[in-house]
Amino acid sequence: MNERSPLFVISVAAELAGMHPQTLRQYDRLGLVSPTRTAGKSRRYSMHDVVQLREIAQLSSEGVSLEGIRRVLGLEDEVATLRARVRELEGALADEMLNRPGRRVFAAGAAGEVISLKAGTRVRRENAVVVWRPLERE
């Protein structure tokens, strides 16, 4: 079960949301909160539906019209959908970056330049020490 599992009959959902059952029927007719239906056509509300009903009550008490509430809920659904899509794309990109053949690794060279390497190769280190000696004069 998850937060969208239909659990509550209308009377219980109304009590949990602090509303009258008739208000829930009206919101269903208006499409603000549309619970699932059983084979016998009775409404079954999920915990997500109850949370939305509470949000509707809060927005209504702040003076937002039912049309405004519909728009707010629609935008919240759109944001949730877009966030899920972004997570999906970020995961696909991460997989692509890890599994791409011939991907490149960058390192810093001795003089501070950027060196591009194939994955799995190492920078050749030179530990030579140059000692300066003045030229001997004859």
From TrEMBL:
Q: What range(s) does the HTH merR-type domain occupy?
A: 7-75
Protein origin, superkingdom = Bacteria
**Coiled coil is among the record's keywords:** yes
Question: Any keyword Cell membrane?
Answer: no
**Pfam families on file:** MerR_1
Family annotation (PANTHER family): HTH-TYPE TRANSCRIPTIONAL REGULATOR YFMP, REDOX-CYCLING DRUG-SENSING TRANSCRIPTIONAL ACTIVATOR SOXR
Q: What is the name of the protein in this document? A: MerR family transcriptional regulator, heat shock protein HspR
Organism source for this protein? Agromyces cerinus subsp. cerinus
